[in-house]
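Take a sample.
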Amino acid sequence: MASYFDGSIPWATIRDMHSDVLSQTDHSITEEGLRASSARVIPSGEVIMASRVGLGKACLLAQDTAINQDIRALIPRKTDKVDRRFCLYWLQSIEEKIIATGSGATVQGIKLPFIKSLPFPDILLEEQKRIVAVLNEAFAALDRARALAEANLADAEELFDRSATRVFASHSDSHPLVKLSEIANLDRGQNPPKTDFIYKPKTGYVRFYQIRDRKTDKHAVYVPDNTKLHKVAPHEILMSAYRHIGEVFRGAEGAFNVALCKISSKSEEHLLNDYLFEIIPTDFVQGELLRHSERSLIPSMSIKHLQTIEIPVPSINRQQAMVTELEGLKVRISKLREACQLRLKDLGDLRQSLLQKAFAGELT
């Protein structure tokens, strides 16, 4: 086993496997811990594959690395017969087959006998190297295109954030700054016992919103309706008060937990809820919340601090005009985002197509 100057060995988990080469990990294990565990150290240059969560992901090791039972190493018996990157590309070409074979009630997985049964291509080493060289060149071009598409996507998100802040900042000098406590209702949620949770609608129960529900309804939870719950209506705003601090969503109806904060206008004659919804994710509110919690390991906020934050409050007509401007900008940014995401999907499909051709003998 290799000797490491810091007395520890890199330890790979499935979440570290996000590229073709695993060059560093977030974890390490001491040599003593390694001896007391079932983990194995796999030499650098070998191929590993996820056999449970993230099923089918594969990569090469850039250094000697310990792996746990969720990862399998594919070490050739005849090292002079197999090109390691060819092996990696072969696994990537059959990833869908591997995923389809996975079984398990909660977490899909594959077993060692299945991995051993996979028919490795009977191709001479020189031909393997030729195929790898062709794929390397093609994938390098795809990686450059992907990096450009990802940069464009990031630019689109940043453009909207900058533009939204600019729209509100342009009025901060000419309109009064007002504390949120004076113009908005603010309420932090409450957590009922998890033993009360059910996962299908039922008479006498209400939907219970958590941070994860801001983007999906896949994990919907329902709790018994009672007077202790903190309720939210569809027109009111829910803001993350923990971890994803300052992110907002609307349309919720039910109760919400302590990791969320409900915000709504005290009077729409003076402050539009639409205006409030647009200004919260900007530097005026979210930025201030993040700066106030920057020393915390996980960002969080307090109602007392939120109450003191000041925002510009122009006339109702001007608020509506600003909201309309931002909604138009959202439409344009959304189209740009969709185009970037479609480009990324096309690049992924093209990579998979090249892999399929390579192992069907169609790559020249």
Remarks:
- The longest helix spans residues 125-169.
- The two ends are 41 Å apart (CA to CA).
- The chain has ten helices and 18 strands.
- Residues 39 and 68 are 5 Å apart (CA to CA).
